[in-house]
Specification:
Elements lengths: L1 H8 L11 E11 L2 E8 L5 E5 L3 E2 L2 E2 H12 L4 H10 L13 H22 L2 E8 L2 E9 L6
Bound molecules: zinc ion.
Length: 148
């Protein structure tokens, strides 16, 4: 499918020919659902490759989003493997559970920012103590004296 797209819209920048690309996946470079794709000109041999997903600090974005999506619908690694097999997708990331931590950290950060934003725009003062990855609500005081 990618072969058709490349060959119908692209010209080789080195030899200026059309309908000249072989597009292939390098399966040994797969990282979970992220693949390495390269396009090679049949005439001059020039080649360009790229991963199919952006790199993020925790790995590849597609893997992080996949694990997050699976967790949001209550699915763990075993069911994710079945899902990928049935959908004819590459297997999910081998270190599936390792991606829980960056997802959890991002959720914690978003939750904390949301609470800070709430505090800055409301009449509610909340004292929070962040305890490892859990936010413990210590006290909630409605401040009637603030004018906003
Ligand atoms: Zn070429």
């Amino acid at each position: 499918m990618l072969n058709d797209i490349f060959n119908n819209i692209a010209k080789c920048r080195y030899c200026d020919r059309s309908f000249c690309f072989d597009v292939a996946e390098n399966k040994s470079s797969r990282r979970g659902l992220a693949s390495s794709i390269s396009a090679t000109c049949k005439y001059c041999g020039s080649s360009h490759g790229s991963m199919t997903s952006n790199s993020v600090p925790a790995g590849y974005e597609v893997n992080l989003r996949f694990v997050y999506g699976m967790r949001c619908i209550g699915i763990g690694k075993s069911a994710a493997q079945t899902f990928c097999a049935l959908m004819n997708l590459p297997p999910p990331p081998a270190k599936f559970e390792r991606l829980y931590t960056p997802i959890f950290n991002a959720l914690e950060t978003a939750s904390s920012r949301s609470m800070v934003s709430l505090l800055s725009t409301s009449r509610i003062d909340i004292i929070l103590i962040t305890f490892s990855a859990k936010i413990v609500l210590i006290s909630l005081c409605i401040n009637h004296t603030k004018d906003r």
